[in-house]
Every structure is written in structure tokens, then in C-alpha cells.
Amino acid sequence: MASVSGSPLPFFALVVTGVAVAARALSGRRDREELPDPAGWALARRGLGLGATVVILGGTVYTAYTVVAVPGLTYATGGFGLYALTYTLLLTPAALFVLPRLHAMARRYDLLTTADFALARYRSHALALAVVLSGLLATMPYLALQVVGLGAALRAMGVDLADPRVVLGIVLLFALVTAALLPRGLRVCVRVAGFKAVLMAVLLVVSLTLVAQGGAGAGRVFEEAGRRLAGQGMSLVPPVGTRTAYVTLACGSVLAQLMYPQVLTVALAARGADTVRRAVLALPMWTFALGLFAYLGFAALAFGVTTPPGHAELAAPELLRRLAEPWLAGLLLGGLAVAALLPGAVMAVSMAMLVTRNVYTEYFNPTATPKHEVRIARFAATAFVLGALVFALLLQPQDAVNLHLLGGVWIIQTVPAVGCAAYTRWFHRRALLAGWAVGMASGTLLTVVDGFDSVVTLGSGTGRISLYTALVALALNLAVAVLLTPVLDRLGVVRGPDALAPGDPVARRGSRFAFRID
After folding, report:
1. What is the CA radius of gyration of the chain?
2. What does the pLDDT look like over 376-413, one tens digit per residue?
3. Environment class of residue 423 by beta-carbon count within 10 Å: exposed (0-12), middle (13-18) or buried (19+)?
4. What are phi and psi of 366, to 5 degrees?
5. In 10 A of CB 208, how many CB atoms?
6. What is the Cα–Cα distance from 218 to 82, expressed in whole angstroms?
7. How far apart are CA 249 and CA 255, in angstroms?
8. Which of 282, 309, 323, 339 has the most beta carbons within 10 angstroms of its beta carbon?
9. For 330, what's the count of Cα atoms within 13 Å in the CB-facing half-sphere?
10. How many Å separate Cα 377 from the centre of its chain?
């Protein structure tokens, strides 16, 4: 383990611990006096104003791993890595189309999770369970990647992650975060989101200043980065032959991002649909900041930063470590760690509500009181955080990245059941379930067989085309659903009642499989 003397580690720990303690202290007496309720714990009683929604939506979508991985992408792949900026720009119009509509429906019918939409619209417990499974499988490695982002910051400070003392320190850090954030749910996460926004702004301004003071203006950065990339067969712009991969990666990432349970959780917590619209319109500001982080990847090339093979995510932290004094590097990398705490906590909250609302109270205890539901959700959220921690510590970072790539394939398969449910009920519930199964199986197979590459090449000879694997699997999913729906209708297979139709109640609990466990 690196020596504490002259090390950024104490300053790193100071920032992370200080933010966690401050957020817990700001819980407030009013929170303690409120009766426990799932909507209060997971959605802050659906009362977030514009400012709170802006910071927590941006802080959840733009995770710590994002601000580490995007510079790593530009560092490792040059201009192709800028697809992340294209995707986040496209996210705004797509979110405007989907999130306000889902918010209005959720408020009207008391829906809390992505699976609630599938269950209410199609009255299919199997389809709701499929949405739960996709959400958990996709979000768990995403949560683990936040630990990987934290590990990148620690590794850049010279900390040996294999040292048992370091592992114990990380465990204690996450125990502190769990104790500080999860008991109060989303409301405390909003307060951490404010800290994150400020720390990210400071991190960005100081980083760009350090790069400029290091004698590398923008012109020199791009010139030197272009020269180094050319030596590796890459360039500052996406290669001509990768345009279809670039476009489909961007478009598919938009659809996947909107289906992650944590994004919907934040959107449903807003005070109203208009608040969601205005908060979404602020996302381009976060994209602008992400573009500046991408610039740090080019700066790392210009300054000759080298990272171990397969660890391009270390480019930005290593750059900061090289340019900043130890105390300043510790403070900056501590801010990066705080950026991992917020989305990690929101992911844990959203996954816990999927388990509590759509598994526990659906099948095991339909008469659970709101207080009991919150207790189960807190336990589940803690289990998910600890599970992600073990997951990230036992696996290599590349393994976590590979599973996250699969997560994108899995979560996008819920677009027909959840995203389309906001606008239509044309699909037959069994056709949707069959399409989901085909999409999950084909997407997983294509990704694994292709060596966990996010892009699959179809065709042969001059007709070869590279596409985002998740989007290919989604196309198969939709094709099956579209083809089977009229067939099932013609065969007279009964559709479930639409609980979202005017006048129809939403019966959330008490499925035909339910039994009680005290």
C-alpha cells in the first residue's frame, strides 16, 4: 500500500467521508417524523422540485464510471469514443418523449417501478417478472462499475487494491455510505447529488487548468493526440468504416439508458411531468461537461500517459496524478469517488423497489404494510450494495465491463414492455414475453460468441455491416412481438385487462401465486 506521507490518500478519504457524514446530518427532523412509505423512501414522496430533479437526474445518468470511461474511450479509440457524446445529446429528445408520459401515468395510477407499468398495462405477471429480471441483471454490474470507478481513482494514487488493508478500507467506506444514504432513501441521495454537481464542476475546472498550465493548449493537445493515435491506426474522428457501428451504438445506448430502473425512479420522483421536461432540457449541460472530460482523454495522450493493457479507464486519474500536487490530487479524486456514491445509491434504491414491490409483495406477502415494505426495501438495497462490492472486488475490471455490456443488451429488451406501454397496448402480452425471451437469448449469444464485443458484424464481402448488438437483439424482439400479436389475436388467446384504461382500477397486489410469510 502506498505510504500516507506525501500521498493523496488522506485527502481522498477526507472528501468522501465528509460528504457522506454531511448528507446524513442533513436528513432533517422532518424526514424522521414522516411515516415510512415506499413512495416516500424510493421517490421522496414524488415531491422533487426543478433544481433537485436536475441535479439528481444528471448525477444518476452521468455516473462516476461514465466520467472515467469516456476519457478512457477517447484515450484508447480516439474519435470513435465520442459516440458517448452523440448518445447523451440524443438522450434529451428521447427522454422528453418517454419520461414525462411515464411520470404522468405513474402519478395517476400509483406506479413505482418499471415492472409496475408492464403489470398494469398488460396484466401479465410473467411479463412483469421478465422486466424485474432484466432490471436486476442489467443494473447489478452497472452498480459494480461504480466500485470499479472508485478503484481506478485509488489505483491512480498508487494504492494496491490487492492489499487486504485496502480491501477492508473500501468495505468500511461502503458501509459508511450505506449507513448514511440508504435508510432515508432517495431524499438523502438528492442532497448528495448537490455535492456531486459542485465537486464535478470543481474537478473539471481544476483539471483543465492543470492541463493548460502544463503547457498544452487545445491546439497542441489535439495535434499530439492525433499523432499518437495515428501511430496506433486510429484518428481524432470516427473511421469511415465504423459509421454504422457509431450510429447504432449511440441510438441503442439512448434506449437502454431510458429503461434502467434508476432513471425511471428519479423521473417519477419529480413534482410533476412539467418538472421532468424542464429537468431533461438541462441534460445538455451535463453533456457539455462530459465533452470536456472526453478532452482529458486526448490530453492524457498528449502528455504521454500510459496505462496497463485493458485499463484505459485509468487515463484521466493518471493524468491528474501526474499534473497535481498530492493533496490536490487526493481532493480531486475524492470528488470522483463521491460521483460514484450517488448513482450507486440510486441504483440500489431502484433495484430494492423492484424486489420489494414486484416480487416480495406480489408473491410472498400481499398484505405487507407500507412500513414493512420500506423495511424490506432497505434490507434489499443494503444487500445489493454489498453484493456489488463483492462482485467488483472478486472480478477483474474487464469482467465487470463485459457484464455491463451484457447489461445493455438485457435492459434494452424491456423497451416494448415498458417504453411502448406508455403509448400503446396493441401488443399481445404473450407476444411481448416471447419477443423478450428471443431478444435476451439472441443478444446474450451474439455478445458472448463475439468475445464480449458490443458491436456485431453481419453479412459477408462488401455487404458487411457493423451494428450495436443490443439493437440487433431488440429488432428480433420487436419482430417476434409484431408477428405473434395478430396470430395470438386470431387464435383467440385472451388478453389481460388494461388497468391503465380510463375507469379501470390498478390492482397491484395479490397475484394468483401469492402466499403470506410473516
Report:
1. 23
2. 999 998 888 888 777 767 767 667 777 888 889 999 99
3. exposed
4. -65, -20
5. 16
6. 17
7. 10
8. 339
9. 20
10. 19
Residue 249 to residue 68: CA distance in whole angstroms = 19
Answer yes or no: are the C-beta atoms of 121 and 499 closer than 8 Å: yes
Of 200, 146, 199, the closest CA to residue 173 belongs to: 146
Confidence check: pLDDT of 179 > 70 = no
**Residue 386: enclosing H or E segment and its boundaries?**
helix 370-394
| Closest among 109, 103, 61, 85 to 277, alpha carbons compared | 103
- Residues, the chain, total? 518
C-alpha cell at 265: 425512479
Question: For 245, how many CA atoms within 13 A lie in the half-sphere containing its CB?
Answer: 18
What pLDDT, in 10s, does the model give residues 50-60? 989 998 998 88
Q: Which of 246, 225, 243, 237 is nearest to 304 (CA)?
A: 225
Burial class (CB in 10 A: 0-12, 13-18, 19+), 460: exposed
Task: Tell me the sheet residues that pair with 455.
Answer: 468
Label residues 162-198 b or e (16+ Cβ within 10 Å = b).
Answer: eeeebeebbeebbebbbebbbbbbbbbbbbbbbbbbe
What does the pLDDT read at residue 120? 87
Residues 6+ apart with CB under 8 A from 342: 56, 59, 60, 189, 192, 193, 196
DSSP annotation of 468: E
Residue listed under C-alpha cell 499523432? 227
Bridge partner residues of 270 (DSSP) = 48
Across 328-354, average pLDDT: 81
Lowest mean pLDDT among 124-128, 175-179, 416-420: 175-179
- The owner of cell 405513474 is 106
pLDDT exceeding 90 applies to what percent of the chain? 26
Q: Which residues sit opposite 48 in a β-bridge?
A: 270
Measure the CA–CA gap between 198 and 432, rounded to whole angstroms. Answer: 43
- Name every residue whose Cβ is closer than 8 Å to that of residue 49 and which is 6 or more positions away in sequence: 271, 275
Q: Are residues 416 and 435 in contact, defined by beta-carbon separation less than 8 angstroms?
A: yes
Find cell 421532468 and name the residue: 276
Model confidence pLDDT, tens digit, residues 192-211: 788 778 878 888 888 888 88
Whether the CB-CB separation of 134 and 411 falls below 8 Å is answered with yes
